[in-house]
Design a protein that fits this description.
This protein is an alpha+beta fold. The protein folds into two domains: 4-68, 434 Repressor (Amino-terminal Domain); 83-254, Beta-Lactamase. 41% of the residues lie in helices and 11% in strands. The protein is built from eleven helices and five strands. It has helices spanning 4-14, 19-26, 30-37, 45-54, 59-68, 86-98, 138-143, 155-172, 176-185, 231-235, 246-254, and strands at residues 104-107, 113-116, 207-211, 214-223, 237-243. Strands 2-1-5-4-3 form a five-stranded antiparallel sheet. A hairpin with a 2-residue loop joins β3 and β4. α2 (19-26) packs across α3 (30-37) and α2 crosses α4. It comes from Phytoactinopolyspora halotolerans. Residues 8-62 form the HTH cro/C1-type domain. This is Helix-turn-helix domain-containing protein. It holds the Pfam family MLTR_LBD.
Length: 262
């Protein structure tokens, strides 16, 4: 069984912090950090959480640290659609609906789609039904040749952006399923991801989607819950898409993208 000290050392190295760095951030002695990592001192639950907070450890992994130290898990994982998270669910739905007619969706830590607004649906019209069977994965949907890939005009650029995001995510918190997704769709032909639009000319790297004869130029923003105390809320993000130029904004004002895709 992996000890709490081994887990803390792994997270500390992942965050590129020395024992002294962690000790100063957590307001404890470097010697105490060393004793915990070597198993010579059993940390209290509060100490585990203090160190985990400074290491920016996800809530799911904080529970693992607590268990390894002999303490009960502190954080619950409840379904977003359940009664316990009803207020949070309603808030997320309100954000999605308020963003229409622009697309917005909610993804979990493995990029599985949890919720969408109505503006997303038309873009799935030509997608292979097999890719729309739950859980629908946003990365696979976007990069698969029978998914949205044929609709993405700047596919190589969009693929490069997704690769960078997944790489950062895996560096921050390793996940075997996410790593398998990366290997399946992004690991090969990395050199083929060319940037065709100068980054300095954009407020954000856009995704250009061909829809009903129009080239819709969109950029995305990501919204997360602040200081969540539930694993589900800690791991979801709202991805909202906005028009990246005046032409796309004008098209959205006059085009009902919620109509059946053609």
């Amino acid at each position: 069984m992996v000890t709490v000290g081994e887990l803390l050392r792994e997270w500390r190295k992942r965050r590129r912090m020395s024992q002294l760095d962690l000790a100063l951030a957590a307001d404890v002695s470097a010697r105490h950090v060393s004793l915990v990592e070597t198993g010579k001192s059993r940390p209290s639950a509060d100490m585990v959480l203090r160190l985990a907070a400074q290491l920016d450890v996800p809530l799911r992994d904080r529970n693992r640290l607590l268990f390894a130290a002999g303490h009960a898990p502190r954080y619950r994982e409840r379904p977003l659609t359940g009664c316990d998270l009803e207020a949070a669910h309603d808030a997320v739905v309100a954000v999605l609906r308020a963003h229409e007619p622009y697309p917005a969706l909610v993804i979990d830590r493995r990029w599985n789609i949890v919720l969408t607004n109505d503006a997303v649906d038309p873009f799935f019209g030509d997608v292979d039904p097999e890719l729309l069977k739950p859980p629908v994965n946003m990365v696979r949907l976007g990069l698969h040749p029978r998914g949205l890939a044929p609709k993405i005009v700047n596919f190589a650029q969009a693929r490069a952006v997704i690769r960078a995001r997944l790489s950062r995510q895996l560096a921050q918190a390793w996940d075997p399923e996410l790593a398998a997704l990366y290997d399946e769709l992004l690991a090969s032909d990395a050199g083929d991801d060319a940037t065709t639009v100068p980054i300095e000319s954009e407020i954000a790297i856009p995704m250009i989607i061909r829809h009903r004869g129009y080239d819709l130029k969109l950029f995305s923003t990501i919204t997360t819950f602040g200081t969540p105390q539930d694993i589900t809320l800690d791991e979801i993000a709202i991805e909202s898409y906005y028009p990246a130029d005046a032409q796309t904004a004008e098209i959205f004002r006059h085009l009902d993208v919620r109509a059946t895709a053609g």
